[in-house]
Design a protein that fits this description.
The chain folds into two domains: 115 residues, Aspartate Aminotransferase, domain 1 (Alpha-Beta Complex), CATH 3.90.1150.10; 253 residues, 3-Layer(aba) Sandwich (Aspartate Aminotransferase, domain 2), CATH 3.40.640. It has eleven helices and twelve strands. The strands form three sheets. Strands 2-8-7-6-5-3-4 form a seven-stranded mixed sheet, with helices on both faces. Strand 6, helix 7 and strand 7 form a beta-alpha-beta unit. Helix 1 runs antiparallel to helix 8 and helix 9 packs parallel to helix 11. It is globular and about 75 Å long.
Length: 385
């Protein structure tokens, strides 16, 4: 079992931070990498052509390793999930009556692009909800998604887990069903990649878009995209000079190049060689790879196990272990609880969690211990018992 890693972070002892799903704290090494990037920018006479390209290549290789992708050229570095989803939408043409399958209450960046696309082509968005009164609600939710996929389905867009409560979706079965009906599978991996094992070889998504500032510990404003062969010859949403062949030859840039670099390189955001961000992202991914998502998941399961049992005893509803992730899970509260007072009380006690819909979303990591759940349990017990 991997040990607690709080020494690598700068989190005060009087803070209970169980909110990494909203914004992760930086490693001390990421902070130092950012300072190194600032220093490099302050000395531009030391910046060479190689500095625009080689660090980005290394960054893509690291992310490819995390998601078990063989070819780093299938990775694009982007600024946000919405940018990656816009690229997907820019390369899909629908027919009237085509269907887009999503799950209920998924994150807005994985909805607005599809709503605009559906409106443009007179297509239909099918939203699959969780039947919360069903004792096997997660299994039923997965069945509902599978049953919704048919010959009219253009694509399914969803996360690996639900972002508010950690419910696990059966992506492998969903992928098999989409293939059987010639539909695409678009995955938002923002709340799993880096903390939960994932393999593009196993799931074979057509696109995997992932925020970089959560479980991958990068700065706010960075993200990653994996694009499968459906997008190999697609149209990017911007024409960035560095995404063209031979762009490393600065002296020849006005010999305008009609061809893009191979595969997903055409989708890189402009100024992807950001000297500060890329250094920070590289430092972060190296640390995540050293730990491994498998070990992170097991650690989070170990430190939260007793807390989950205690929370259930005082009246909280939490999905069964096998139906949810352990780095992120939702605590469903009774409907009559005073949420305004609870939020204020948690803040005053320096307990940081998220409120998402009807859930308190708890998200932990290697800087947490089992003791970090005790203040939360104590506070909730005063409202529930």
């Amino acid at each position: 079992m991997i040990e607690n890693q709080k020494h690598l972070f700068d989190i005060p002892e009087d803070i209970t931070y169980l909110n990494i799903a909203a914004q992760s704290p930086s490693f001390k090494s990421v902070y130092e990498a950012g300072l190194e990037g600032l220093k490099q920018k302050s000395q531009p006479y030391k910046i060479t052509g190689v500095d625009y390209f080689e660090p980005v290549k290394e960054l893509k290789q690291l992310f490819a390793q995390i998601i078990d992708a063989d070819d780093y050229n299938r990775i694009a570095t982007i600024p946000s999930v919405s940018y990656g989803m816009a690229t997907v939408a820019n390369n899909i043409t629908l027919n009237p009556g085509d269907e887009i399958v999503i799950v209920d209450e998924q994150f807005p960046s994985n909805f607005y692009a599809w709503k605009k696309l559906a409106d443009k082509h007179n297509a239909i968005i099918k939203t699959i909800s969780q039947l919360k009164d069903d004792v096997n609600s997660v299994e039923s939710w997965n069945k509902g998604i599978l049953n919704s996929i048919n010959d009219k389905t253009a694509f399914v867009a969803m996360g690996n887990i639900h972002w508010s409560n950690g419910c696990l979706f059966d992506l492998k079965a969903i992928r098999e069903k989409t293939k059987a009906h010639n539909a695409l599978l678009i995955i938002d991996g923002s709340q799993t990649i880096g903390a939960f094992p994932f393999s593009v070889k196993d799931i074979q998504p057509d696109a995997l878009i992932c925020a970089g500032y959560k479980w991958l510990f990068g700065p706010y404003g960075c993200a990653y995209a994996y694009y499968g062969n459906y997008f190999d010859n697609g149209n990017p949403i911007e024409e960035n000079w560095s995404n063209r062949l031979n762009s490393e030859n600065f002296a020849g840039l006005t010999n305008y190049e009609p061809q893009y670099k191979p595969l997903a390189n055409r989708y890189n955001v402009g100024e992807s060689g950001n000297f500060i961000y890329v250094k920070m992202q590289i430092a972060a991914l190296k640390q995540v790879i050293e730990w491994t998502p498998e070990a992170i998941q097991e650690y989070c399961k170990a430190i939260s196990k007793d807390a989950v049992s205690e929370l259930k005893l005082i009246g909280c509803k939490i999905e069964n272990d096998n139906n949810r992730s352990h780095h992120l899970f939702g605590i469903e509260l009774p409907v009559d609880i005073d949420l305004h007072a609870l939020k204020k009380d948690l803040f005053n006690r320096n307990i940081f969690v998220s409120f998402r819909g009807n859930y308190i979303r708890v998200s932990c990591h290697l800087f947490n211990t089992s003791g970090d759940f005790k203040p939360l349990i104590q506070c909730l017990s005063e409202y529930l018992v």
